[in-house]
Structure formats: structure tokens, C-alpha cells
What does this fold into?
Amino acid sequence: MSKNLSMRDALRSALHEEMLRDDRVFIMGEEVGRWNGTHKVTRGFFDEFGPERVRDTPISEMAIGGVAVGAAMAGLRPVAEMMTINFALLAFDAIINHAAKIHYMFNGQFTVPLVIRAATGWGNQATATHSHTPEPIWAHFPGLIVGCPSNAYDAKGMLKAAIRDDNPVLFTEVIALYPKPSQIPDDEYIIPIGKSDVKRQGDDVTLVAYGRGVEWALEAANILAKEDIQAEVIDVRWLRPLDMSAVLESFKKTNRCVIVEESLPMYSFGSEIAAQLQEAAFDYMDAPIKRVTAMDVPLPFAREIELMALPNASKVVKAVKEVL
Amino acid sequence: MATKTESLTKETLLDWYRELVLVRKFEDQCHHQYFEEKDPARKITGVYLHLASGSEATHVGAVKALGKDDHVITAYRDHGIAIARGTDPKRVMAEMFGKRTGTSGGKGGSMHLADRSVNFWGGYAIVGGHIPLGVGIALKEKYTKTKNAVLCFIGDGALNNGYFHEAANMAQIWRLPIVFLVENNFVGMGTRIEESSGQTQPTKRAIGYGMKEGPSIDGQNILEVYNTVKAELDWARENGPVLMEAKTYRFEGHGVSDKLYDSRDDLKAELSVWEKRDPINVLRAHLESSFKNLDKDLAKIDAETTQAVQEALDFAIASPAPDYNDLISHVYVGM
Ligand SMILES: Cc1ncc(C[n+]2csc(CCOP(=O)(O)OP(=O)(O)O)c2C)c(N)n1
It folds into this structure.
């Protein structure tokens, strides 16, 4: 049996199940309780679990990050919500210098079983300070796990894996995907950390993406299919640890690759995938590897130029045609 | 109030009254263009619009207390502050629409208004982010030995952000000329001050920094706001930072996504109490008790402000959108 749930509700049910399963799991963050969550992922939790387990915090990202790290070290399993990834930048140090390094630096004495959830994504005229998709910069750092689901089904299974893992996880949720539904099985399932997924099969070109990029890649694949071009779409799901196996396998078949991401082009997800591909599969490469990214500018408010700056399916189609 | 109050002329008070009404109508128009307007070419779009209806006396009164060479910086609830500081409402409205003629060329949006020409250093949308910037501007003034001061608005919620702590302490050790004006509307987005702050009397936090604990005032009364802020700015010029508070309210909720007033009876009740202390009515009552025969003046203000908002709207709608060159310009200086 299954239900049609939006990504918002799929995430909510993952959190709900984990809260019921393990009473060390608790939620903290801005507006998560009485306000029911900025993105309503924690709707109803305050009433159900109470203020000890659903903790409204002040607007104190540095402390949300740092306190969650301490609580995790001491044996709780915090799920800390950063209202959006933009504000997680204020907690960069707590997450990078502390969460990601403590296990290593103290030679394994402490673990940091922490999940930081953060809404991510560009668009809707949220403007420069509120329009980041910076997963790749977080994924730069060893010690941290970074995941970003592309649909409701994956979101549920990935979040459950993140909560059960003993490592710190930055789990980002694309705002534009919150309302989009998938069929969610009633039975429990887990999507393991570091496992990518082939979202569509094809022999002509490999599209590699995560998060919202998967949506654009699939849309582009449908357009291309009408011209008899079959794209294979791979959703890496986790930026770190990065599972290249499906990407490599696909590339050996298609010999062409376009990387699609919502984030910025410099030192990016696309740069990393392209670098790994040329190192591991140089002999299979028939065309330059292309990247479709946001433009290299802070995101402006005005709709006309905001849309110009963002990736979309037709930009993916164009890039594919350049490598065929 | 212990502070020396300036005797204010009828003209000045009418001028403030005009400004309060202008800001209110400006924001009401924005609300209309966001929620009611159907024509896409006339609609304000996007996910953010933080109105300050109810807080006009705090915004306008404090800004009016600034000298020409003083400075002001704030968070995202910035429309009235820009207008009070003298930015043309047309350019403010154009920014609300993301037009090229806007204060930020259409690139900043409503949360990121700024007008360098009147020392309005901007609205900033990362909570707390602007506080150290304000301190930096004050540092420049002290460094260059002027007597100019900075007015830094701070939300009550923002006091809990790490930026405030570090910036406040630094302002104090260097005795920088800045007035931190806490715009206390008792709530962040939805979290109340009692739930977010161990110390619910904002000015008391000054003690922890060795800073002057400034007054706590009625933010609905523009005379009180003006007189106290003016006195504190003068104190800050000579002595260093002050932390003061204006108690006020926001009638429209946190932002356009805030529906709490629709669902919570307690908040509805609180709102109706504050609506009785509408800053426009407070000043109007003062005017009417101090001067006779104001009807003509008030009617004139009513007509002029309606017209000014209409002109701003027409200007914004008729203005061009930014283009590709705007998209790629100003990423770096000189590139
Ligand atoms: C660093 C950061 N965290 C969270 C937010 C989201 N946010 C925007 S406004 C706001 C509430 C701010 O409250 P307050 O400072 O009291 O100002 P008010 O809106 O009441 O004027 C929050 C949590 C943000 N913009 N920046």
C-alpha cells in the first residue's frame, strides 16, 4: 500500500516516524514549534511531542548549530532546522569546524550524530541574500555528509538514513520541490547514504544532477526523446559521500555528459563530476563535458533577469545538442 | 521624559503627519498591488514583502532626528525608513516592482533598498547582518573625527543573533557614535520575545556591554520618538553607543506569508488593542489639541499623499525592467 504525499509531507512522516522510534531524536530551530515550521514540515509536532522535543529557538544560528553539535556529542540525536540554507551560513563554523571535524580531531572519541535540515534553492525573487543553493561548498569538507533529495520518495528514505547515521549530515530540501508529490509506501524504507540512482535510462547522453537539477534533466530528457535522443538521468542524491559508480557506468555507454545544477559554476558540483570523469574515463570521452548551472552572478530581484540567470530544461537541451 | 524637548512648530508637525500618512498609504498600495492586483504588469511579485504599518512613528520619528550627515541602517522592514530619509517614493516603488529605476536598479527588491545619496545604507535581509555594518560606519566617523552618528534599527528578535553581541561589544570598547534603536514589536516571525529572550527588557542588555542603557519609549508617539532619539544621537556623538527601545507593533504580521492574525484569536485581540494606538491617530490627536482649524491642512495632506503614491505607482509600472547588461553589471567594481 502507498499514499500520494508531497515532499513536505514525506519529510514530515520521516521525522515523525523517527521521533516515535527513538526518543533521543528531537527537533530544534527557528519557528519549528508554535509556528509549525517555516515550511510546515513540522506541522503539528509541537502539539504532539511538546516543547522538550520540538524546541523553538531564538534567531541564533550560530548557537543552533553549536548547541546541536554539543547535544549530539553528548548522546542525543538532534535534528536542527536552519530555516533556510542562507542562514546556515551564519553557522558555517559550527558545522564545518566543529560538527565535521570533531570525530577525526579527537581520534574517534566523540561522534556527532546530527542532522541539520535546511531549505535550499533559488528563484521566486527571493533575492541575493535569500537565494543560495550552496550544497557544493559544504560538500567540500570531509567529515560532513551532504544530501539533497530530488523528489518526495527519496526525501523520506534519505532523511531517515540521515537521522540514523552517526555522522553529521547537512540535509537540504529544495523549496520548489516541497509541494511536489510521489507515491510513498506505507512500509518503512531507507535510502542509504552515498547511493546514487538512475532516474531515467538512455544511451545517447548522460545527465548528472541532484535536487532541482534532476527535475530539469528529466524535463529535458522528455523534450530530447521527441527527437529520438535518449538521455540517461542520474541523480547522485548525496553530494558527499559521492557515488560515481552509476555515473561512470553510464558514461562508458553514452560517452557524453552534461551536468545540471542549480548552483553556481565556479568550483562546483559540475566541476567535481567533470574532473572525476576525465580522470577515470578519459578514453570513453567523445565530447567535452558540459555544465548547465546558474549564471555566475548574485541573484537579482527583477523577475526578467532572475529567470535569465537560472538554469532550466531548455538550457539543458541546448547543452546536450552541443555535445552530440 | 527627562530629555530636553525641542519646541516644534505646526509646520514641522504637519510635515511629519504628511510623512506618516504617505508611508502608510505607500505600504497599503504595495499590499494592494501584491494581493489584489490581477494584471501581471501591475503586480508586485516575489515571496517577500514586510510591511511596517503600525511602526511608522518609530521609523519616521527616528529618521527625522538625524542630521543631514548622520547615517541610518536597518533590516528588511525598510520602506518607510527610505521615504522618511528623503528617497523619492517613486524610486522606492520602482524597486518594489524590480524596475531599473528602483533604488537598487531592480536587483535588490523590497528587502534591500538603499540610497547612498541620503546616507541610507540599506535594508538587509539576513537578520542581524546589518548591525556590525552600522558599527563599521560609526567607526569611520570616529576615525575621521567628525561628530556624525549612526542610527541602527534592530528588531527585538535580532538581539538574539550573534552579530548583535559581537558588534555591540565592539561599539562600546571603541566608544563609537551609534544609537542602537530596538524596534520592539514583541515578536520575531512568530516567536514571542518571552519565548526567545532571557532578558525581555531589551535596554537591560546594554549593562552586559558596559554600554549606556538608553530610554524605553512609546514608539507610537512620534514626538517622543523624535525627541529621545535626537537626544541619544547627541549623547552618542560625544560619548559612544546607546541601546534604546521603542515599543511598537506591526499591523500586517511578519510578512506576506504570515497568516497568524487570521487563525489566532489572542493575536487578533492584541492587534485590536494596538490599532487603537495607531501612530497616525496619535499625532493627529496631538495636532488637533494643539492647533485650531486644521481641517484644510489635513485635507490637503490627504490629497497630496494619495497623489504622491499614485505617481509613484505610475512611475514604477511605466519604468523598464532591467536587462541582461544589468544582470551582469556590478558583480565587481570596474569589470
Ligand atoms: C540570519 C537569519 N535567520 C533567520 C531569518 C528569517 N527571518 C526573517 S525575519 C525574522 C524575524 C526577525 O524578527 P525581528 O528582528 O524582531 O524583526 P521584525 O520582523 O519583528 O521587525 C526571521 C527569523 C533571516 N532572515 N536571517
